[in-house]
């Protein structure tokens, strides 16, 4: 019998590769305030965290003019990124990516963000440019998480069978998508937004308390080649 080996690691962005829930909460409320709208409570942001931004915002601010919100959000996000307030990848996480590369794994991103929301992280001068081989988001995939078909383009374009890939994410929807696609899932609990009990255990292969633990954890999985 041929043993299937893990060849690639796909990684979620928000609250996995970098901690973003609180930073996003502050950013979104800044835009709402600029629009003359009341800020949302943190509890509401947490309840809808993980949903695509423009799908979640009508729940976070009922009656919101999305056509006006979108450009204002983009401008504010660009400023927050430039000021180091958003999408900061800690050095230890970059080191973990380097360790995965040294193990021979291909690294890819799979996020619920849109193309414009992730574009700055894919620029040639970004720390990810030499580490990530591809990025999949709402604008270049036909389906989004938690639909298992969110992995269709990633697997087909990389020439991977589902057991040859591991996905690292932070939400039950991430687990559902991965599990449904036949991809092993590692739950990253670093943000504290979710607990392991929030996940369907059928879809969780392993869990980690901080992203750098992904390296030794993958080495414990059956498909690790060592």
UniProtKB/TrEMBL annotation:
Keyword annotations of the record: Hydrolase
Q: Which domain of life is it from?
A: Bacteria
What are the GO cellular component annotations? cytosol
Query: Is Hydrolase found in the keyword set?
Result: yes
> What Gene3D superfamilies does the record point to?
HAD superfamily/HAD-like, Putative phosphatase, domain 2
Establish whether keyword DNA repair is in the entry.
Answer: no
GO terms under biological process: DNA repair
Q: Which InterPro entries match?
A: HAD-like_hydrolase_sf, HAD-like_sf, HAD-SF_hydro_IA, HAD_2, HAD_sf, PGP-like_dom2
Tell me one GO molecular function of this protein: phosphoglycolate phosphatase activity
Name by which UniProt lists this protein:
Putative haloacid dehalogenase-like hydrolase
Native organism: Actinoplanes missouriensis (strain ATCC 14538 / DSM 43046 / CBS 188.64 / JCM 3121 / NBRC 102363 / NCIMB 12654 / NRRL B-3342 / UNCC 431)
């Amino acid at each position: 019998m041929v043993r299937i080996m893990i060849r690639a690691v796909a990684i979620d962005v928000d609250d996995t590769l970098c901690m973003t829930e609180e930073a996003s909460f502050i950013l979104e409320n800044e835009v709402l305030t600029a629009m003359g709208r009341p800020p949302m409570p943190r509890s509401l942001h947490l309840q809808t965290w993980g949903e695509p931004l423009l799908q979640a915002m009508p729940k976070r601010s009922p009656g919101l003019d999305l056509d006006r919100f979108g450009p204002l959000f983009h401008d504010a996000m660009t400023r927050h990124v430039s000021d180091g307030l958003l999408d900061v990848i800690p050095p230890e996480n970059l080191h973990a990516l380097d360790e995965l590369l040294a193990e021979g794994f291909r690294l890819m991103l799979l996020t619920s963000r849109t193309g414009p929301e992730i574009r700055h992280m894919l620029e040639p001068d970004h720390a990810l440019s030499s580490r990530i081989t591809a990025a999949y988001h709402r604008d270049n995939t036909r389906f989004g998480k938690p639909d298992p078909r969110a992995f269709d383009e990633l697997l087909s374009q990389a020439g991977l069978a589902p057991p040859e890939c591991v996905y690292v994410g932070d939400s039950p929807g991430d687990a559902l998508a991965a599990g449904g696609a036949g991809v092993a899932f590692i739950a990253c609990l670093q943000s504290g937004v979710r607990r392991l009990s929030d996940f369907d255990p059928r879809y969780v292969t392993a869990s980690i308390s901080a992203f750098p633990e992904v390296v030794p954890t993958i080495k414990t999985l059956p498909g690790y080649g060592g």
